[in-house]
Amino acid sequence: MKERVLALDLIDSYPVEQPELLHEPDDYGVIPRWTPEEVPQRLLYPLYQDVEQEVVDLPPFDHDPGFVVCPDETLDVLWFTPTSLALTDFALTVRREVRPDGAVVTTGGSAVISVSAYVGRPYVERVARERWTWRDSLPLPEARRAPFTVLPAVLQGLTVDLELPAGVAAAPAIITASPLAGAATIAVELTEFGVLAWRTALEQGVARTIPGTVRATAVIPTANPDDWYPGVEHHTLDTPLGTLLAGRGAADVRQVDPQQTVSPTVVVVGSQLVASSTVTLRPSTGQAPSSAVFGPGGGRVTTAVVTQHPDTVGVEWKAEVAFTPPRWPVVPASGRLDSTSGWITMVKPESWCVGYVLAIVPVDAAGRPVPASTRAGDRVQGVLNFTAPYVSGGLLSSAFDAEYGRPTSLVLPRFPDQPFGDLVLTVFATCGGVLGQASRRLGADDVVVTALAYPDGRVELHTSTESLPEAPTGLTKLLARLGELARG
To answer: What is the pTM (predicted TM-score) of this model?
Structure first.
């Protein structure tokens, strides 16, 4: 059947010829990779030719999400993407108290659920193994049945919500998503009824029966074979809560002793742009502090404070996040957990990042888009200079090649409580042997940029924040599409 072609990113590839020699991904899963530069980049590669594809559905196995695969005969690539989320972390805290009559009762609790739109090594291995079966059944010409390279389709702009039956949640869930990483963490306070039902299901090994749904959508970059514009496809990852928790049990339940006990918790949301995160909790009661160090996958640190007067207790927390790009600053964060502000908070490293999407568009003399194939001899390059007092040496710089219709994602650091730095983008275009260029200063909100390259070498830079007078060229529509890729 005719379908649009999934774009690809700079990602790890896995040779299916010898599945046992698959590269080892890190614990964070098989996810799109940022280039290891001081201004990290991701390139998107939409295709423009018609491709016959067959989408193959695979049922879930064990307690993991199902996924679909999509062979692309023109690239010898087998795309795969989950059809639901994967669970990366879970904990249930049950609070109890002693009533005046001496009875110990459950009064409520809380749950922390971390999910990812990407999958780990077992899935890559399974896709690779199953490929041997598909090779003979897919409607591909005999000459195109060479082994495929297995690649995960890139997912961006992740949004997540939690849907629970009435009477289960004591308050709306706190949800922190990291769209660049394709991950999210959910913290929800549960009623007495809700926590009892969850605890019973976990302890009896029937967590699959826990009702509720984690609703999620992501954006897959695509290209329409009949249109030069890159586009987006909204990919639904809604997952029953019971499916996510099916492999969990009594070991994930933490019961607070029947005294006046509080459990302050700091959750660090994962990001591939992070090298390490250090978190320390220091109770005001004089109790020994708790600390933890996390890698790119993030994590959570919890301490238990026993007191007869919980309203007077507070826990000071501090965190330091070190990023992987060279010369990015170490970002500190701090706060206080107490009965007023709540006993759980989240640290989201991506909140200190600004992501940009740049697309280069070939146009004719009147500014109308033309097929990239008509300008095959052109060359386009970009230079990004970012100055800020909070980066080492005061300057981050990157030069990169760009291609028509292939958006480039770039990321820069943002330091809390300080003005964003000074960012200048320069695009050079050689069209018909004529060199032209354009420069523009960008703000933190100018996250979508389109460069129009004219046949005489002239270059125009436009952002999604400006008012565009033209309608026939379709630039407004393009900027809106690219904006979904930059959503975060």
So the answer is: 0.70
